[in-house]
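Hey, I was hoping to borrow your eyes for a little while. A protein chain has come my way and I'm curious about its shape. Take your time with it, there's no hurry, and the full record follows here:
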Amino acid sequence: KYWKRPSWHEFDDPTTWYVYPLFSEGYRRMIHFFAIDIWNFFADYNEQMGCNYTYIMRLDEDSYIRSRIDYDIFGFMEQHQYDYGYRICAYEMGSALTIWSKWRSKRGKNIPIMRDIDGDMCGIYNN
């Protein structure tokens, strides 16, 4: 349910996708899950298991928190009405702005953005 192609890409030839093969199908599915499907996954999980997860913090298995965090990250986000955070903008991938622009034009018109990304090819990393 969460790892299949979105319906609008069901019959696509992945070799025709933007920045393929740099962003392989497996990589795209992983990104799609952590950017979009994870919210439905945890809503379903909460319902099925009787849990009440409200926040999600994603770190890769090779990520480290190397300094003390002296405040409640989730409380900070709630206080400032943030729905999503990322740790860094990285500028080595020129594809990020094109992908961000496509998302904003097709999906994000009615979603308010608290902080837009810089137009100089920022790549949003949340892991």
Notes: DSSP finds three helices and two strands in the chain. The helical segments are 25-49, 73-79, 96-106. Residues 25-49 form the longest helix (25 residues).
